[in-house]
Structure formats: C-alpha cells, structure tokens
Automatic annotation (TrEMBL), chain A:
Residues passing through the membrane, by range: 12-35, 55-73, 85-108, 128-146, 158-183, 203-224, 266-285, 305-325
Topological category with respect to the lipid bilayer: Multi-pass membrane protein
Residues in PTS EIIC type-2 domain copies: 8-335
The species this protein was found in: Fictibacillus terranigra
Protein name per its UniProtKB record: PTS fructose transporter subunit IIC
Keywords for this protein: Cell membrane, Membrane, Phosphotransferase system, Sugar transport, Transmembrane, Transmembrane helix, Transport
TrEMBL record, chain B:
Entries under PANTHER family matching the protein: FRUCTOSE-LIKE PERMEASE (PTHR30505), FRUCTOSE-LIKE PTS SYSTEM EIIBC COMPONENT-RELATED (PTHR30505:SF0)
Boundaries of every PTS EIIB type-2 domain copy: 1-99
Domain of life: Bacteria
Pfam (any one): PTS_IIB
Lineage of producing organism: Bacteria, Bacillati, Bacillota, Bacilli, Bacillales
UniProt cross-references to InterPro entries, sorted A to Z: Bacterial_PTS_Sugar_Transport, PTS_EIIB-like_sf, PTS_EIIB_2, PTS_EIIB_2/3, PTS_IIB_fruc
Record protein name field: Fructose PTS transporter subunit IIB
One Gene Ontology molecular-function label: transferase activity
Assigned keywords, A-Z: Kinase, Phosphoprotein, Phosphotransferase system, Sugar transport, Transferase, Transport
Enzyme class per UniProt: transferase
Amino acid sequence: MKKVLEEAKTHLMTGVSYMLPFVVAGGLLLTIGLLLGGGEQETGYAKKIVETGTLIFSLMVPVMAGYMSYSIADRPGIAPGMVGGLIANEIGAGFLGGIVAGFLAGYIVEGLKKMPMHRYFAQLKPIIVIPLLGAGSVALLMYIIGQPIAALSKELTAWLTSLSGGNLLILGLIIGAMMAFDMGGPVNKVAFAFCVGMLKDGVYAPMAACWIGIMTPPIGLALATRLAPKKFTLAERQSALPSTFMGATGITEGAIPFAVSDPLRVIPSIVIGSAVGGGLALSLGAKAPVPSGGVFVLPFFTKPIMFLIAFTAAILVTAFIVAALKNNIEEEMPITEEA
Amino acid sequence: MKLIAITACPAGVAHTHMAAAALEASAKKMGLKIKVEKQGAMGIENAIKEKEVSEAEALILAVDTAIAKSERFNNIPTVKVSVAEAVKNPQGLLNQAIELAKK
C-alpha cells in the first residue's frame, strides 16, 4: 500500500513539475498586464496581455494531467491525459478534476498497452488505437465522474467566497494554511486558483493571504537556520540564502528541501506561520491585485505597510515554531561546497 | 567500481543538484567512479552515455518524478529512493548500490 501511495505521489509530482513553467508564464504576464492597467480597460494592449496570461492559465490543468499520465504510461499517456485535463477545465472540475483525469488516463493507457492484439493491428496501436480508445474513454469517464468533482470544486469555491464577507480573518487563515501546506503542490494550487479566480472578479483581498502563504515558508525556514543553527544540517544552512531569495520572488518550492528532511516538524510550522500571517493581513485590510512578482510588486498592494506587518509576523511565527520543535542534529561531515 | 545515477525533483532547481553534488562528493571520498545525470528544470544535464551504461555495475535513481529515457537502463541492477535520501545519506546509498552490484 505504501508503495502504491509513493508511486501515486511520483506521478502527481511529475505532473506538477511540468506544469510549473506555465504557472510562471501565465502569472507573470497577468501581473504585467494588470500593472499596466489592463484590469480596468475594455480593449488595448494591456488588456490583451491580461487575457494572454489567463489563456496560459487554461493550459495548467491539461499539462498537469497529461504529464501525470506520462509518468504512469510513458509517451502514449500524454494525449489522453491532456484530453482529460481539458475536459476537467471545461466542466469546471479544476485541479481536483485534473488529478483524477491524469490517473485515469495513465492507467487506462497502461492497460491498453498490455492488451493483446492481432499482429496486423499491433502496429496501429500507438498511432490509432491508444489515441482513439485512450482519449475517448478518458473523455467519457470524465464527463461522468467529473460532474461530482465539478460540484465539489464549485462548492469549495463558493464556500471560500462566502467567507470573504465578514470572516476575512478565517478566510486569510485558511488560504495561508492551504498555500503553505504542500509548498506548491495540489492543495496550494487549489487555493492559488481560487485567489486568481477572485482577481478576475475584481476581489483582491484573498490574494494578499495567498502571498503570505507563498513567501513565508522559505523565508521563515531560512530565518530559523540562523536562530537555531545547531538544528539544521550544513546543506540546509547554506541553502538559507537561496531559499530567502526564492521566497522573495514567490517560489514556495524553496521550502521543500527543509520539509522533506523533517516533514512532521517543518510542515506544521510553516502552515501555522502562514495561517497567522494570512489572517492578520486580511484583518488589517491588505489586498493584492497581482498573482506573481514577489516582493517586487509589493508597492502595488493595497495597504502595503499592513501587509508587511502581517508578513513579518508570519515569518517570525514560522521561524520560532520550527526552531522550538526541531531537535539538535548530529552533523555528519560536510558534503557539499557548491550546493 | 563504476556507478551511474540519476537525480530528479519536482521543481528541478534545488534538490536535483544538491543530490547530485552529495553523491559525487561521497563517491570521491569512497574512491568510486560515479556519473550523475541531472533531470531538472533545464531538461537532461550531464547525460549518461551509452558506453557508460554498459560499463556501469549499478544504477542509483534518486528521483521524486518520472524520469526521461528510462529504457536505457533495463538490464542494470537498480536502487530507487527519493531524492531527499541522496541528500541526507549519500554514503549509505552508495553502499547499497555496491551491495547490489556484488550479487
């Protein structure tokens, strides 16, 4: 069972890995467009840049599903996986739907590959049989089992939206916690997709909490290596600076090296820190109209000083909790100079 | 003893390279020859050549994602672990590979 879960994680991570550049490309273009005033315009080049950014975002789920399927079934898995992801987008099943589509496509194609076939047809397998039966059956299944997932996805979004009325504190807590929880993984992306969706509707508050959850984990952990150097390996201490830089530019993945070596202590710390900061940011009235750019787009936030106060609190909470939870480690000999 | 290894992590920017550096440094200390291919955000770096595959006695896969061109290594004894394992305990991992090669 453990092996199955680990393999499933590998497939999911492969999908996420290939998806990341699309998130960056779409996010940066959207940011640049919004900074140029594309949010208010009806037409014009700035508006076009914003639209290009959101268009690129629509590739996120298909690419993730396609490469999850590739991870399972190799090359022939890509097309059926992408088709499944496209349908997940189409019916509004979002990331959750995309994950289901990726696994479905991968295992269906893996099955088709093993299916015995008359030798006259065997050569047609990769060019006709798998694309047709693979994509066809994934499409059919997605239209059926995708519906409850779409409903669940909408429910989740509606619930998060309903919170944005009076319960800004709770909304901030939840978004901050979700963003930090898997540092760029599917939970993080669901929360991120929600905040980006809110931006499109002109609701800028959730993205402020989102930013806390994006930037806090790597920076908070980097600070912790200075607060309690005896509790981190040499490699971890050396990665503090790059990790801070990654955090400041909006790459939560900088926290992953710390989390994999000690997940049970690191993940709760960054989740609590980011949740506190997210709740605080929204309570103080911070808003963020841009989904990428890190600290460089801070001046464009609403109430940037309030945001900074919340951000600082998030970093400090993370660093102190992780420093308190971790034990001293026996340092093996230093292994790397250039890592 | 000649070994080959592949490292790959989800983001492909930090762990892939940390694991590769750890394996290379430990192998040097233990007097082993190792070629480490990195499959990161830039695609394949320091690619393992066909000749190196045929000479290698064991393959270490320190990967969290699916790797490209895995069909190259069908007949080599393989240790597969997470990329974090190679960063934390490169020496143990190399010993594991040596054990496997001896069988």
